[in-house]
Amino acid sequence: MVEISGAKALVQALEREGVEAIFGMPGGANLPIYDELYSSSIRHILVRHEQSAAHMADGYARIKRKAGVCFATSGPGATNLVTGIATAYMDSSPIIAVTGQVPRAMIGKDAFQECDIVGICASITKYCFQPMHPREVPEVVKKAFYIAESGRPGPVLIDVPKDVQQESAEMVFPEIVKVRGYSPHIEPDVAQVSRAIDLLLNAERPIIMAGGGVHISGAFAELQALAEMLMIPVVTTFKGKGVFPENHPLSLGPIGMHGHAEANKLVTEADLLFAIGSRFSDRSVGRFDEFGRDMKIVHIDIDPAEIGKNKQADVGIVGDVKVSLRIMLKMLASRMIRKGEGEWESNQWLRHVREVREYYRSIIKDHPREVTAMKALKKLRELLPADAIVTTEVGQCQMWTSLHFDVISPGTFFSSTGLGTMGFGFPASIGAKVARPDVPVVDIAGDGSFNMTENSLAVSVLENIPVIVFLLNNYSLGMVAQWQRLFYNRRMIGVDLKGMPDFVKVAEAYGAQGIRAESMDELDKAIRRALSSDVATVIDIPIDPEENVFPFMPPGKGLKDTIVAA
Amino acid sequence: MTWRIISALVENKPGVLFRVSNMFRARGFNIESLSVGPTEEQDLSRITITINSDEHTTEQLVKQLRKIIDVVDVIRLPLDNSVYRELALIKLKAEDPTTRLEITNLVNVFRGKVVDISKRSMMVEITGTPDKIDAFKALVEHYGIIQLARTGVCALPRGVVHE
């Protein structure tokens, strides 16, 4: 057997996993790996900051539903990845972060660019590897992908000392790996599924709460079939936004802090909540003690630790969402249960659902201006093809998207919903575009967030990955400003960005297209130009800094306390 | 709130104890004692954890432990069907013959051992349930405890365990 270096084994192992792109930045401690990348078929996408490399890998992973890979050197390169890794961890996204480390003999000696990235990442990764001999590398990579992608996905770190990259050994590339302490629960307990069906059928006011697990398992068709078969209205968590077509008659949209008012109201009125691939986050359900007190809860999740973590379930099903829903659909079919459209008239709960939805949709008030976030987003929806991929930054822009941008084609929307990372959307959209180059990819941004990672424009332009930045520009850190207006007696501090920089010029400086849209007509033209552009486009849309996001469930309150309008 | 014992089999490699204890800290679990040591299998260690908590918290702790990749198995040990022991070394002030005799007698009653003796102190070794060690400690406290070290609980279920 021929001996090859640890670095070569690493790159070959990545090729064997079918990796098509790596987002990264080289440095002293990962040069041997980069030297092997020189002759590899894998595309390397050079980033301008490692945080963005992790977000790109994350965006790629969420659309491809396969692990995304990012590279960084030791020390600051590795610590710059941390925010991106934590973002992926909170949203159960599979990324493989490969970091260089100082040579083995230097570890623990406070060497130049040394940091204990394995220690730092312990609580924000599913697992960390640090191969201490080159022959471990092929198995480590295989295990890393297996752990990252299976069960409840999550980020995995591989920290490779520089001399392990350089040293050669005889390598065995395993086809299958086993991890003794790890076996994801895929198949649900059929008896539990049967109990869940009984509760669903006996409920008078059932509601489905679909979460991110539906997206991760790709159970869009199964969810829709179930909802239609039993005629159960569907709310989603924000992470689950768009797992059910938002123009469907049974769709009530996202619940939560900035959920749809009708969704927040109806979810508290249900007598049975069927939570599918959701973790009952505080952001979705408000107060744990208040939410779901008077209803039965059926909960499916692939992670056993989620059952009963924040809310006790009457029936808990541990299993893959798609597999579990398929079993449920089969059982329902064998029991000849199928409800129809006629339920909208005959079923009191559905009649009530329709009334409540119509009521809340009729009282939505827009901000008095020609161009508002709501109008801009509705225009974007009108012009964007249904299969376009949309992500967001974090803050008001994100919550307006939750409220006013309907996701029609399931699985085409994602956002940093758990960690809420400003600066996530733009690099993540680049990653998503690498995963799906055939469809338009849009980052709905705010000026504060976009400013954090706008240097990825260089990556977008130079690597020919054209995405659209739909920038709702209110010259401020809008969500913080909104809280200061509502809860801090308008004592405004640290929120005014004063229109700096000029984002049209920023776009142009990077060789991208920058368009300012100050009227609805200009916006219409700008979106059309962006959609036909070969380079990235930043559409700068000035809006009123005083425009708030409503509805709003105040922090520490329950869904019933949702403020519908100012 | 009840006192409970949890026993985890984990991979015997660097960083595992860190990952386990880091999870306790990150998720706010309060641990009473934790002991780690080798097992019948060379590449596995056993971590024995005692906590004082309610059923819901215990269940969550077990689930979160199971989630850690390097944790191979987790069981809850019922107090009435497990053997559990802790070892304590206690160094006491003992400057005169009467005190030494008294301490030695107490140690015998508790089936402990005197393991070191100097002009001004005695070190005793007590093995047993944490309650027994607490009881002994309470009895000898007035002599003056110079130093005390406890191992934390080590436990196994009674009878044959079927996998």
Summarize the structure.
By secondary structure, chain A is an alpha/beta fold.
**Residue windows where pLDDT falls under 50 for at least 5 positions of chain B:** none
Report the end-to-end length of chain A measured between terminal Cα atoms.
Answer: 73 Å
DSSP helix count of chain B? Answer: 4
Number of strands of chain A: 20
What would you say this structure looks like, in words?
The complex is a heterodimer of chains A (about 575) and B (about 160). Chain A is about 40% helix and about 15% strand. By secondary structure, chain A is α/β, with parallel strands linked by helices. Chain A has a six-stranded parallel β-sheet, sandwiched between helices. In chain A, helix 16 packs across helix 17. Chain A is globular, with a radius of gyration of 24 Å. Chain A starts with a strand and ends in a 24-residue tail after the last strand. Chain B is an alpha+beta fold and about 160 residues long. Chain B contains four helices and nine strands; from the N terminus they run E-H-E-E-H-E-E-H-E-E-H-E-E. In chain B, the strands form two sheets. In chain B, strands 5, 6, 7, 8 and 9 form a five-stranded antiparallel β-sheet that branches. The longest helix of chain B is centred in the middle third of the chain and has 13 residues. The mean pLDDT of chain B is about 95. The interface between A and B is medium-sized, with 19 and 21 residues.
